[in-house]
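We close this part of the discussion by returning to an individual protein. The amino acid sequence and the backbone structure tokens for this protein are reproduced below:
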Amino acid sequence: MLDALAVITAVLVLFALIYLRTPVFIALGTSGLLGLLLLEGWRGLEQVPIAFVSQLESYSLVAAPMYILMGEILAVGGLGRAIFRFAHAWLGKLPGGLGVTAVGSSTVFGALSGLSLSAVTVVGRMAVPEMLARGYRPSFATGAVVASGALAMLIPPSLMFILYSAISGVSIGALFAGGLVPGLLLAVLMALFVVTLAVVKPEVAPRTDEAITWPERWKTVRDVAPALLLIVIVLGSIYTGLATATEAAALGALGAIFIVAVFDRALTWENIRWILVGTTKISAGLLIIVGAAFVFSQMLVVVRAAEAITGFISGLAVPDPLVVFGLLILVMALGCLIDAASLLLVVTPILLPIFEAMGYDPLWVGVILVVALETAVITPPVGLNLYAMKSVVPELDIGAIIRGALPYLGIEAGLVVLMVFVPEIATWFPSITAG
């Protein structure tokens, strides 16, 4: 009884600190330390520093700063513009063409950066002003970018999968393979939604008579070819077993330096400083959250929270799919209050044993959790993609941005349902690459 009271107190403190807009790592660390203190006294805090450091020494986490570095390097060049022109040349004639272009651009950029905020910022700066200038409804224009920016969380190289791997022990390469098919499927579903809405309500996305010649199309292919080749090299080296995900990340960073220096000629001293500062800030912010979340999860391990919840659920006469849906709905609801990366670190130690007890593959668990957590970046009040879009187009009302993103929650939820009944969507490609 006292253990349960200690955990409840720690969780209430966590949510209170988050409500007060305390930095997430402070909220997680403070509530975790409080819980350990209540459970085991000062003795419970003695091992925290060692455990904190040992968690951050995980070899798999080295990949995170490398992929962040790769994305920051590519962002200073002309890659964003090249990708947008490429997508527009091949998709722009479809109904809602610029919206479809935004989805396509975010998909490609997500495969290079792994950061949804970067995708929203880079693609949004080019796509949204262009759409608004052509008479697109603001909510339509921003919704396509905000929602498709979240694809970077699922399409490899995904930082979310690196974090999940550090906790679960599942291979990063297998997780990257598992996220590829659902990520591409989600991109197609978003593009189909954009086209359908533009056909049903043509006033939200006026058609354009702009003619694009075939020579112009092939020129965009040449312009974006180095970036596409880099994606193939990084992911191909992982899937073929030639390199680990961490080694491939280092290879990708070197490739990004070559592209920006030789093709874009943008590797100036000022840009190098911007790259290093940005990489350090993002990496430090991410890793300190990892450490703080580990402190919180240690408290849950002490009270055997996962075993207790698993035992309780096992005693219920409820079909497994309903339990899965209930847990995933809870995760999506919490995503409205806590950012996706922090929430993944908190819920994985609790939910993974529960799903495994029901016979689900840990790889599938990681992929479906990331799909569910994609909603966290597009739902208020915490949805980071919403505020990133607001910073790109400050003249737009945040309400319009939120309204544009909300329909895509249905698409995300639909994919979650489909993956529960067809888990092969996440496990088929990893089984092929492993073979």
Notes: Residues 47-434 form one domain.
